[in-house]
Design brief:
By secondary structure, the protein is α+β, with helices and mostly antiparallel strands. It contains six helices and 13 strands. β4 and β5 form a beta hairpin. The chain binds zinc ion (ZN).
Length: 280
């Protein structure tokens, strides 16, 4: 169909935010920061380069992902520790908070629960903002590097250390289940420390060197009992390529902290209020 006569006017219509963020309860960081001061380190997991590891975080605890040794991107999966069917929902989190997460944003779970699983309470890369290419840090727009897309684009190449495979192996090992059982539970990630965006002219997903430096971290508050999986992406800082052993890679550190007292005013999030009848 030909372009209408008023095409230019149609393109000039102002956008409307789909999900106005002020519809959500505001997050007051003060009680979290207060509880964090006396919180005790109770677990620590080092995720090896080009591999993944699982970790558990009880509700009401904090967990921190830190860059150590060198710039490195991490692919994060979260599950309800008691029900792996409830898992992080990257797409809805993007719709609610935008393409990249920072402090006060939640990681939301899948249907039918759709509730906050974790909340970002500290992000040392918040200073980065949005750069002139439209890039920012900690995205929920990418999926996770995987061997299927790699085979598709490389004429059948076999690579076994994509984040998808790393997370699948780590989950299978942690749960004592087969790779076939674990693989469908792996889901789209929060790309921790990754700097990404969409090109303005062609709308393509891009990545660029992560601004992360050793010592940078992102810290979360666990709203429910969590099982986490973190892969240290074979893309390293994702400045050149992934799905190969070419990029320089580094480990990532996960630490879990238990507060002395529960966070003031915090209550575990309720299940979603929808009645589930779907009009039937
Ligand atoms: Zn990856």
């Amino acid at each position: 169909m030909a372009e209408p006569l008023d095409a230019a006017a149609r393109r000039l219509i102002e956008p409307v935010i789909c999900y106005p963020p002020d519809s959500l309860a505001p997050v007051d960081l003060d009680p979290f920061r207060e509880a964090r001061i006396e919180a005790e380190l109770v677990d620590s997991v080092t995720v090896p380069a080009r591999d993944a590891a699982c970790f558990e975080v009880p509700a009401g605890h904090f967990f921190r992902i830190t860059s150590i040794e060198g710039p490195q991107v991490g692919d994060l999966n979260l599950w309800n520790a008691a029900n792996l069917a409830e898992r992080f929902y990257s797409g809805k989190t993007r719709a609610l908070h935008g393409t990249h997460l920072t402090t006060r944003d939640h990681m939301w779970s899948s249907f039918p629960q759709l509730r906050p699983m974790a909340t970002v309470v500290h992000d040392t890369l918040e200073w980065y903002g949005i750069d002139t290419f439209g890039g920012s840090v900690h995205d929920v727009i990418g999926t996770r590097c995987d061997p299927y897309t790699h085979a598709l684009l490389s004429g059948g190449g076999q690579y076994h250390h994509c984040c998808h495979s790393n997370l699948t192996r780590a989950l299978a090992d942690h749960q004592g289940i087969s790779l076939a059982e674990a693989e469908p539970l792996v889901h789209d990630v929060l790309n921790v420390f990754m700097c990404t965006g969409f090109t303005r002219d062609t709308g393509q997903y891009f990545m660029k060197a992560s601004p992360v430096r050793p010592g940078d971290y992102i810290e979360f508050f666990a709203q429910i009992d969590l099982l986490g999986g973190l892969s240290a992406c074979p893309g390293g800082d994702c400045s050149s390529e992934h799905s190969s052993d070419v990029a320089r890679c580094h480990p990532l550190l996960v630490e879990v902290f238990k507060p002395q007292d529960p966070v003031a005013g915090w209550t575990a999030p309720a299940l979603n209020a929808y009645d589930g009848s779907h009009g039937a």
